[in-house]
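input
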Amino acid sequence: MSLQSTPVPESRAVAVTVAYVTFAFTLGAAWFVLAPLIPALITHLHASLSSILLFVSLYGFAMIVFSMPAAWWARKDGVSPVLRTAIVLSFLGLGGRVFAPSYSWFFLAQAIAAIAYPMLISPVGAVLRRARLTHWRAATGLTIGMLFFGMSMGAFFGPTLFGAFGLTGTLVFAWVLNAFVGVFLFSAVNNLPAERGEPEATRRIVFGSPRWWWIGLAIASTSVMFGGIAVSVLLHLNVPGATQLGATLTALTFLGSAVGASLFPSLADVFGKSGVWQLVLIVLTTILTVLVVLVFTNGIQASANLLKVVFFLLGFFGNGCYALSLGATAAAAREADGAGVQTAGFSMASNVGVALVPPLLGPLAISAPAAFGLLTILIAVLAVVNVSINVRREAAVSAAQSGS
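output
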């Protein structure tokens, strides 16, 4: 079924995309600026380390619970009210952190801000297809890349902001920056056209195609797990400077993820063959995953510089494939609002992996290295198989359509 909507002038499409992508950056930065503030938050809120770490993981749980409701809402009423809700929730939640006098207050504010994540990211396919961009797949990757880049920059500049402005000043800075871009996005969504790909009465509630879900789950869960256990494993292996090196490896993974998620969808848009790009990237990701497993299980030794390169490339290749697979889920939808449901299902599966795999599988790197290695590599190999099947299936469909 062909999409029927009022074309959006290119300048307006770009304005919507810039506002959307920039807001994703500020939300990621506002979230992970907390990482270097954890010691200060422990003192300020009189809480334990595990309790404070929960602040950072809340967005993953929000993605699991609210991804599909956000996408269904976008499919029913359009993306504008969903995005505006994300802006309002972000403003209230990030602002509430500034004035939090207790742990409970801060937790509630952080939980409110966390819901903005699925409201913003889950219907990404619908948002960018609605904008009628010529290269909306590249814009999808750019959105995910800028979210990762924001996370990386928040963690990187957090100590500098804390040194200059203190805890409260840093939280205010993140809040104001996010609010400023939020006003821009709130206005820009007026440029999105009203669109219905099929009559309301014929719409069915769907959960999106699970065809690509394992790819998202595998890449997201293993990259988060490696970053989460890096310091502990390196300490266990008596690596010099383990704490600083582990933190650097985690930051490099975020940075590589940002670059890869932004770059590879653009290359696929220009040169085509998205499925081939996905297959090459997931194979390279699997090779790097095997290298990390061997280092973490003391199978081989690697220099600090080599590890930095490996972790950067792991994020670079892995989330390049992640972004391409996310774009493929959106392309599978017959109408733009349905694309939001497709990407929401992918995001939900990814965050289920993030919630379950790192805490269950990660500790085995120290207590049962062989089991850790085999299970981690199995997850990656199954992702390769998943991509291979999808590439063959899409090639067959394309050939059948060309023949007809």
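quick obs: Residues 45 and 104 are 9 Å apart (CA to CA).
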